[in-house]
Write a structure and sequence with these properties.
The complex is a heterotrimer of chains A (about 250), B (about 350) and C (about 180). Chain A has a single domain, classed as Rossmann fold (3-Layer(aba) Sandwich), CATH 3.40.50. Chain A has eleven helices and nine strands. Chain A has helices at about 25-40, 55-60, 70-80, 95-100, 100-110, 150-155, 160-165, 180-200, 215, 220-235, 245-250; strands at about 45-50, 65, 85-95, 115-120, 125, 130, 170-175, 205-210, 240-245. In chain A, strands 2-1-3-4-8-7-9 form a seven-stranded mixed beta sheet, sandwiched between helices. Chain A has a two-stranded antiparallel ribbon with strand order 5-6. In chain A, strand 5 and strand 6 (about 130) form a beta hairpin. The longest helix of chain A is centred in the last third of the chain and has 19 residues, at about 180-200. Chain B is α/β, with parallel strands linked by helices. Chain B contains twelve helices and 15 strands. Chain B has helices spanning about 10-20, 35-45, 55-70, 80-95, 120-125, 145-160, 170-175, 215-235, 255-270, 290-295, 310-320, 340-350, and strands at about 5-10, 25, 50-55, 75-80, 100-105, 135-140, 165-170, 175-180, 205-210, 240, 250, 275-280, 280-285, 300-305, 325-330. In chain B, helix 2 links the parallel strand 2 (about 25) and strand 3 (about 50-55). In chain B, helix 9 (about 255-270) packs across helix 12 and helix 10 crosses helix 11 (about 310-320). In chain B, about 60% of the residues are buried. Chain C is α/β, with parallel strands linked by helices. Chain C has a six-stranded mixed beta sheet, sandwiched between helices. In chain C, helix 3 crosses helix 4 (about 130-140) and helix 5 (about 150-155) packs across helix 6 (about 160-175). The longest helix of chain C is centred in the C-terminal third of the chain and has 15 residues, at about 160-175. The chains are: A alpha/beta (about 250), B alpha/beta (about 350), C alpha/beta (about 180). The interface between A and B is large, with 35 and 40 residues. Strand 2 (about 65) of chain A pairs parallel with strand 9 (about 205-210) of chain B, so a sheet runs across the interface.
Chain lengths: ~250, ~350, ~180
């Protein structure tokens, strides 16, 4: 009998606490597969955020640390500076990375800190029950924008990949999605590259993963995946925003 | 005195940290402690260490959290407003049972306050400063020599008890120069099997964390931590007792206030007043026992502070208010003169 | 027991802190107890600067000198500010090139040194501070004149050996200055 499904070694054999239809499970798996494929499980150190992925430290089998809300890039900076031989990654949501942790994010990128950041953008605060995020779309209804996000009152969504690409520092920035098989495959490739960059000492890599939150969006999982295609991706176009590795390869 | 050098208090802290094996420093500029960062910026690259000027105090303390989690000696330094920003990270460090050294070279507050010396972060330091049930080991140096010695001790005790330690100095202590004999010999180190180092696929993963969603578990962790704190109170309390043998009055002061008060005590003795001084060197744990003992014999206490009166509450608690506890204080960056303290001592003898 | 409480004050940039640092090192080399405490903050950028230096045979208590036994002033605001604070029987050293008025107190000894002019004439215009220090050593004996070269070598970096020589000359100029 051939094996059709196998859990990556880097993923612990415990059930996730995520809601039905949540894409965190897929993204966790892509991260674990990348770690397995690069054979870095024994030297990986992960930084968990505050948000839905707060208990990621229970799900990855590598050494893990739980950071305060938004501070993961600073914590990762400390670890990486102390242990440059280890592979250090953060896993953060949009409130964590793009709101309260914006300073930590921007400056880690500006320093081209040799770390890997997995940024899950689902346009909402999930853990606290569906409040407006820095990435919530104009008009999007949330608990704290009950009449739809009014850009005159609350400003516009933050496009993290575009924003960070304005810096000279970062090595690799790509936006991907996980709402269909094709996109998941592209996301896997991007996440693998983001880890590989660190292994090769190339510097800061951030993968923005456009994701869904059926529970707090008030949709079925299928509908939520469609909404990603219809609303999210048009506002957050997928693609590579920065790739210094391509530049150096071209030169070589 | 051949082995003594003249150093600023801030520089003595920095060099002592290096001698204690600290190779990681994260900070953000703020007066009056910037010499520490400048010293580290110069020295660390030459000894294979890490100096990084963070984008904020908040980031600096979280970098400290990361390095502490990775199992290395690490420090940050700041002054009062910056310590408020670090309070979040300090709470996480304490809640994750990590060792680290935090230096607060205090200035006047609240708010942006001023830049002159102060001791008005006493409550913040001795009660933890951030949210939740926890303590820091708090050391209050009163000389440049103690700035160096207590820095080394702070690293060692932080490692031993897996908790953050703080050097609570002030602008005067940071800026003044005195002869100092730098610590020599190997600093005591401790195994850190809990550290994040990568599993090497040989052991279950280590997790550094302060989140416990089950209240029973969080309570258990807090009880265990406070059990450790009780042991620390028994064994790690430090103080200096000065002319207390026959004292009828007791001055209580730490840091720069104790330096000023010592002059006043000497002057009062010259006038025939039998006064002594108890100088807490650790502010947490606070030297409760010698104060309780003194309360049996002295007529009154005088708390001398560069604040609106914060330590005085601990003096009252330690002595169970059995004897009057008076306050002699200046605030906002002002320092009492020895004459002011002498006047307060004389008033104490008249009043009681 | 002998203790000297010295206060040096002037404008930022006049080498007030450096002068104090030199005296502190000299005290250290003589095996004395001492402390050196500068004023700090924005006032250091071109405003008034001062430093407290205490040299004693006993451990130093408070490092803050509010009532100096010895006052060295290099501008008028400093003399205005600290003249009355000086203890009776104390000594006040005045750079008379920059301060035209005399010391009003009659219960202190006043010394007038045209240090800024002397420094200019001697070709080291930035070393009025050390000329003042020379005179101060002569009249107070708070540290000894012997061994000033060694103390200077502690405060002047080895890269600037030429500076050491002119500092030495400046101290000698002050030490030998007679009003």
């Amino acid at each position: 009998m051939s094996v059709v499904f196998e859990k990556p070694k880097s993923l612990a054999n415990v059930p996730f606490h995520y809601c039905p239809g949540c894409t965190h499970g897929i993204i966790h798996r892509l991260v674990a597969e990348a770690i397995d494929e690069l054979g870095i499980e024994g030297r990986a150190i992960g930084v968990a955020p505050v948000g839905c992925a707060v208990m990621a430290y229970d799900y990855f089998t590598c050494d893990m640390i739980e950071a305060a809300h938004g501070r993961a890039p600073a914590v990762a900076t400390g670890i990486k500076r102390a242990r440059p031989e280890n592979i250090v990654f953060t896993y953060q949501g949009d409130g964590d990375l793009a709101s309260i942790g914006m300073a930590e994010t921007v400056h880690a990128a500006a320093r081209n800190e040799n770390i890997t950041i997995i940024f899950v953008n689902n346009a909402i605060y999930g853990m606290t029950g569906g409040q407006m995020a820095p990435t919530s779309l104009p008009g999007q209804v949330t608990q704290t924008s009950p009449y739809g996000r009014d850009v005159k009152l609350t400003g516009y969504p933050v496009k993290v990949a575009e924003l960070l690409s304005a810096l000279d520092g970062p090595t690799y920035i790509e936006r991907v999605a996980v709402n269909n098989v094709k996109n998941v495959k592209a996301a896997k490739k991007a996440i693998l590259k983001a880890f590989k960059n660190q292994v090769e000492g190339r510097g800061f890599s951030l993968i923005e993963v456009v994701s869904s939150c059926p529970t707090n969006w008030g949709m079925t999982p299928e509908k939520a995946l469609e909404w990603v295609d219809e609303k999210m991706i048009p506002y957050y176009p997928l693609g590579v925003y920065r790739d210094k590795t391509a530049e150096t390869e071209e030169k070589a | 005195m051949a082995n003594k050098v003249l150093m600023k208090g801030n520089e003595a802290i920095a060099e002592a940290a290096i001698l204690a094996g600290c190779r990681h420093y994260f900070g953000y500029p703020i007066t009056p402690q910037t010499e520490i960062a400048a010293y580290m910026a110069k020295r660390m690259p030459k000894i294979g260490g890490v100096f990084l000027q963070a984008e904020s105090e908040v980031s600096a303390i979280n970098m400290v959290y990361g390095v502490a989690g990775a199992g290395f000696r690490v420090m940050t330094s700041s002054s009062s407003p910056g310590i408020s920003l670090k309070a979040e990270g300090i709470s996480y460090i304490a809640g994750s049972d990590l060792p680290a050294l935090i230096v607060n070279v205090q200035r006047g507050g609240p708010g942006l306050g001023g830049i002159q010396p102060s001791q008005s972060d006493y409550f913040q330091a001795t009660r933890g400063g951030g949210h939740g049930d926890y303590h820091l080991l708090v050391y209050a140096p009163a000389s440049v020599q103690e700035m160096a010695d207590l820095t080394v001790l702070g690293f060692e005790k932080a490692d031993e008890y897996r908790m953050p330690a703080m050097i609570l100095a002030d602008g005067t202590m940071g800026q003044m120069m005195e002869p100092v004999e730098l610590p020599s010999g190997e600093s005591k180190t401790f195994e850190k099997p809990w550290a994040l180092s990568g599993t090497k696929c040989e052991r279950p993963h280590n997790v550094v964390n302060s989140l416990y969603l089950k209240p029973e578990k969080l309570e258990e962790v807090n009880f265990a931590r406070y059990e450790r704190y009780r042991k620390i109170e028994e064994t790690e309390t430090m103080y200096e007792s000065y002319l207390m043998e026959d004292a009828e009055y007791c001055v209580v002061a730490f840091g720069i206030a104790a330096r000023v008060a010592k002059n006043a005590v000497i002057a009062a003795r010259a006038k025939g007043i039998r006064v002594g001084m108890i100088r807490p060197i650790t502010l947490w744990p606070f030297p409760k026992a010698p104060l309780a003992e003194a309360a049996k014999t002295v007529k009154a206490f005088l708390s001398v502070e560069l604040s609106m009166g914060q330590m005085i509450e601990d003096v009252e608690l330690a002595t169970r208010s059995q004897k009057p506890v008076l306050l002699c204080n200046r605030a906002g960056g002002m320092i009492p003169t020895p004459e002011e303290v002498l006047g307060a001592i004389e008033n104490m003898t008249k009043g009681v | 027991m002998k203790t000297t409480n010295l206060l040096i004050a002037g404008f930022g940039g006049q080498g007030v802190l450096f002068a104090g640092k030199f005296l502190a090192y000299k005290g250290l080399l003589e095996g004395k107890q001492l402390s050196w405490l500068p004023s700090y903050g924005p006032e250091m950028r071109g405003g008034t600067a001062n430093c407290s230096v205490i040299i004693s045979d006993e451990p130093v208590g408070s490092p803050i000198v509010s009532n100096p036994d010895v006052l060295m002033v290099m501008n008028l605001p400093s003399l205005d500010k600290y003249e009355d604070a000086t203890v009776a029987g104390g000594k006040i050293f005045v750079d008379s090139t920059l301060i035209e008025r005399k010391v009003e107190r009659t219960d202190v000894d006043a010394y007038y040194i045209p240090a800024t002019r002397l420094a200019k004439e001697a070709g080291f215009p930035t070393l009025a501070n050390m000329i003042m220090v020379g005179k101060l050593i002569k009249e107070t004996g708070m540290v000894s004149f012997d061994g000033i070269r060694e103390a200077l070598s502690k405060v002047v970096s080895a890269k600037h050996a030429d500076l050491l020589e002119i500092n030495l000359k400046a101290i000698e100029t002050g030490y030998n200055y007679a009003e």
